[in-house]
Specification:
This protein is α+β, with helices and mostly antiparallel strands and 240 residues long. 21% of the residues lie in helices and 35% in strands. This is Molecular chaperone. It holds the Pfam family VTC. It comes from Paenibacillus antibioticophila.
């Protein structure tokens, strides 16, 4: 077994597409039950920009659209436009459970990967880096689309709960450089819609469950990657 997964911890992940009215009500309900995430800025938010990868068969995309319960996807993620923390991640999904494997990159490694120099990932003593290297060499794992949004995060110690509201979802179309100063993303989702995610370990406290539930609010698979991919014009499913 790949030793990168020896200490893999799976968590529950629930996603909801909500409107602005529902967002304000739920946030007000949560006000005295949770606290802002310590990584949020003074306005309670931070910015996320991710570069998603897919292979020559577009496996991550097709498996998501096909409703596969067990799947994974790769991405490079940065926060607030800074290169102080660059993470190459693999998000693994098994039903309603998720786990992540992460590999930190420095700016030089990031630039090398973006320029097609995958040898920087050839690290025999690093199982996840080697997995990425082999995916790129054997399955032609390549950058596909940038996903850009603002996150408003909250946490609750009981159950290790994390609730996030992801707003202003944008895509870079065919852009692939997370640090391109001329990058001008376009809206990928109506501004009236917000993606709410609820992640937790073994249990979700009843008072949290009650706070995030509303009549007509249903769990759904709101994939930012798929939403943004629909703006690319080289997919045969774009009109579905």
């Amino acid at each position: 077994m790949n030793t990168a997964y020896n200490n893999l911890k799976f968590r529950h992940e629930l996603k909801f597409m909500i409107n602005r009215h529902q967002y304000f009500i739920i946030r007000q309900r949560l006000k005295n039950l949770v606290r802002p995430d310590k990584y949020a800025s003074t306005n309670g938010e931070y910015h996320i920009r991710s570069l998603y990868f897919d292979d020559y068969e577009n496996s991550a995309l097709s498996e998501k659209l096909g409703g596969f319960r067990d799947r994974h996807k790769y991405r490079i993620r940065v926060y607030n436009g800074s290169d102080r923390l660059i993470l190459f991640e693999k998000k693994i999904k098994c039903g309603d459970y998720i786990a992540k494997v992460k590999e930190p990159l420095d700016r030089d490694m990031y630039e090398a990967i973006l320029n097609g120099n995958y040898e920087v990932l050839h690290q025999p003593d690093n199982p996840f880096a080697m997995e990425l290297y082999l995916e790129m060499k054997q399955h032609l794992l390549r950058p596909r689309v940038i996903v850009d949004y603002v996150r408003e995060p909250y946490v609750c110690e009981n159950g290790n709960v994390r609730i996030t509201f992801d707003k202003e979802l944008r895509t870079g179309l065919h852009a692939t450089d997370l640090f391109d100063q001329s990058f001008n993303p376009v809206p990928a989702l109506d501004d009236r819609h917000i993606i709410m995610e609820v992640k937790y370990d073994e249990y979700l406290p009843e008072y949290i469950k009650a706070a995030v539930q509303m009549e007509g609010l249903y769990q759904q698979a709101a994939s930012k990657y798929v939403i943004c991919c629909k703006y690319l014009k080289n997919n045969n499913w774009e009109d579905q």
